[in-house]
Amino acid sequence: MILGIVLGYLAISLAVGWRAGKGSSASSDGFVAGDRTLGTFVMYFITGATIFSAFAFLGQPAAVYTKGASAFALLGYGCLGFVPFYWLGPRAARVGRAYGYVTQGEMVAGRFQSPALAIVMALVAIVAFVPYLALQMQGAGIVLEAITGGDIGPDVGAALVYGVVLMYVWRSGVLGVGWTNALQGILMMVLAWILGLTVPELMHGGVDEMFDGLVQRDPKMLVPPGYTGTPEPGVVAPWTWSQYSSRLVVMMIGFSFWPHLFMKAFTARNGDVLRRTVVLYPTFLLFLVPIFLLGFAAIGMENPPASADGILPHLILNLDLSPVLVGLFCAGALAASMSSGDSILHAAASILVRDGGVRGLRLDLSPERERGAIRALLVVVALVSYLFAVGAFGEFHIVSLLVFAYGPVGQLAPVVIATLCWRRATRHGLLAGLAVGSATIVVCEVMNVKLPVHTGLLALGLNAITLVLVSICTGQREPARHERFIDTANQPTST
């Protein structure tokens, strides 16, 4: 029955995603930006469900299980991280409509007339996207392996789920992503609260009793940033406050600048839709509270799974729950994975074609050939990410994959802010900043440099300083064009 419910959910997702694309135009704007028609309802779920993924549904219980209360910081950085979008999103929407932009890199390269910027931003995005998409695939594989008792291995499970994702994204583009995200977001929120209250009741007699017992057994699990569990690979235990807080700062800064999330600014009907989405967005984070409760409920359980990443499926499958509820939980976990995975997959292929091909290499593609190229790259990106997910390039854990991905994506923050807000910014400054920031991350990772703060924070600081200094020292080409761009971004209208 459990497997039947999961397969039914996959079939419904495919049907919704497949049908969503019927109303879009045949242009690349239709496939990538949904003809700029999305309203508040879809925007709310396409932003919330896009960000909170397999990491939230599987990785966060694992983080609570191993590190305790430090995981609650997600509520803070999740709310604050999206705030810049209130001002930047409408600016991006205005210049997108005026100049025909549908991606973040296209906007930046368009202002500075720089193919090199387009290519560099495409590369940075892909470096961040591949591990993030692999994370989602890992999560899907873990769920299917758990519910079938190992009859379907994680590799096969990931392939099955993301075969469905690939089909509806290939068919419908961003509209398929948006409407399936609405379905998946509702499912995630409802099931999280049902399970978050039911499981502590069954295991401990209630939420209050669960925390009372934890105070007696392991009080460190309730005091950030300390914890008593096993740290993720590459992290020295226990965390210091500098390691803990700098990691959060990097993730908060990178939050609004994920290329797949930022692209949604170009899909919105107008700027008012974007502002309403930002204001409403924190309510989506309420579904994380019961997810945290599930992680706390698992602390000290007998016969834990071999990997913390599988703690939640292991917990649910070993309790006396209705098969229907277990099946719906598994569908919710898959929804969390798919709601981010589809957006990442769509954005990665779109960026490679629009930024790398059209803007970077200056390929002259018709709308039909451009759409065909995006669809072909959907398959390529999915395959490469799948190889990462199944360990073809080494073993990775869900949390460590996410933390690594935020390092490169955070380097886009100074670039985007300067593009939309600073008249004196130059292409040389942006390129130099990106080069210095990205090189810092690569060197530290390759040489396994241990810093008292997150590598991404150091790289971000060097990036911003370099961008400003080089921009001041280099002159702009066609200053009137830059003035028009900033004036368009600053227009006091909702469109």
Keywords for this entry:
Sodium/glucose cotransporter; 73% helix; mainly alpha; globular
| Count of individual helical segments | 23
Radius of gyration: 22 Å
- What is the number of E strands? 0
Tally of domains: 1
The portion of residues forming beta strands comes to under 5%
Q: What spatial form do the alpha-carbon principal axes imply?
A: globular
Largest sheet: none
Which structural class do the helices and strands define?
A: mainly alpha
Give the CATH topology.
Sodium/glucose cotransporter
Helical content (DSSP H or I, runs of 4+): over 70%
Helix/strand order? HHHHHHHHHHHHHHHHHHHHHHH
CATH architecture descriptor: Up-down Bundle
- Please identify which CATH superfamily we are dealing with: Sodium/glucose cotransporter
Low-confidence stretches: 228-237
Structure characterization notes:
It is a single chain. The radius of gyration is 22 Å and the shape is globular. It has a single domain (2-406), classed as Sodium/glucose cotransporter, CATH 1.20.1730. Helix 6 packs antiparallel against helix 14. Mean pLDDT is 84; it is low at 228-237. The chain is built from 23 helices and no strands. It is mainly alpha-helical and 495 residues long. The N and C termini lie far apart (49 Å). It has helices at residues 2-20, 28-33, 40-51, 54-67, 73-81, 84-99, 104-112, 115-147, 154-172, 174-204, 207-217, 241-255, 259-262, 271-280, 288-298, 311-317, 323-360, 367-389, 398-410, 412-421, 427-446, 455-473, 479-489.
